[in-house]
Amino acid sequence: MKRILPMIIAMICLLPAWGAKVDKRMAVESILQTYTEWKSAEFSGRLNVKDLPVRPTIKIYMERGKLIQISARVPMLGEVARIDVSEDSILAVNKLKRTYILESTERLRDAYPWFISDLQSLLLGRMVVVGHGEFSLENARIVEIDTSDAEEWIVVPQQPSKKIDASYGYNVTPRGRISELLAEMPSLDMILRISYHYAGAEMSMDVAFNKGKKETTFSIDFDRVRWGGTMMQPVKGLSRMKRLGIREIKELIRM
């Protein structure tokens, strides 16, 4: 798989020389017309992980560019895990193990100020141009667009981002929605693949993450997005839980 993405990017870069003709303006407008303006949003879904005996219910609340809250619940136990990502900190709580991690985002924010908004866009099935935010009329000029055999658009940035060592590209449906994201970070030996599937207003994501020879996979089935929504209450009882360091994250996520 590591050779696939560089080959796609090279082919896209050679399109002008081959005389390929794609109505880029039409493609950009078709994609952007699906991007509803929003300030806050919430939606629910089901998390599917191979080694988990149950399918937790996932609820997500977001404030654009400022906050992501993710709550996992299971029958009879209620909320078992919580993640709050804000501009200032990341809080991850395992209520079953009574452990949590609380870390400042200062270094992450300095290195990549768009970390919240880009993650929000991907959760909504929207393209991100790394270092330039969500796909828009302004950053559309630095991407190449072609059509695939599946009658989808292939969208690849013309130039690598100076902010992060990554090669990436998207497949986009004729209705302007992402069907697949493929990203590679050679310096970290990482590959990320997200496949999106749609059924009306509902969406599912199949995620595959490779670090070296190790692969992690999971999927989430989302209900319809509700624009607006209500922020979740702060997590209570942290003083009675064990605080872990960021290097102990494996202990945190162990159920």
Could you please describe the fold and organization of this structure?
- With 255 residues, the protein is α+β, with helices and mostly antiparallel strands.
- The chain is 17% helix and 42% strand.
- The chain has 6 helices and 17 strands.
- It has helices at residues 4-13, 15-18, 24-32, 106-111, 115-123, 249-253, and strands spanning 40-48, 57-63, 67-74, 78-86, 89-94, 99-104, 128-129, 133-134, 143-147, 153-157, 167-172, 178-185, 190-199, 202-211, 214-222, 226-227, 242-243.
- It has a 15-stranded mixed β-sheet that branches. Strands 7-8 form a two-stranded antiparallel sheet.
- β5 (89-94) and β6 (99-104) form a beta hairpin.
- The longest helix is centred in the N-terminal third of the chain and has 10 residues, at 4-13.
- The protein is globular, with a radius of gyration of 19 Å.
- The two termini are 31 Å apart.
- Residues 10-19 have low confidence and may be disordered.
Q: What kind of sheet is the major sheet?
A: 15 strands, mixed
Mean pLDDT: 86
Separation, N- and C-terminal Cα atoms: 31 Å
Class based on secondary structure composition and strand pairing: alpha+beta
Number of helices: 6
Please write out the topology:
Elements (H helix, E strand, L loop, with lengths): L3 H10 L1 H4 L5 H9 L7 E9 L8 E7 L3 E8 L3 E9 L2 E6 L4 E6 L1 H6 L3 H9 L4 E2 L3 E2 L8 E5 L5 E5 L9 E6 L5 E8 L4 E10 L2 E10 L2 E9 L3 E2 L14 E2 L5 H5 L2
Parallel strand pairs: 6-17
Antiparallel strand pairs: 1-2, 1-15, 1-16, 2-3, 3-4, 4-5, 5-6, 7-8, 9-10, 10-11, 11-12, 12-13, 13-14, 14-15
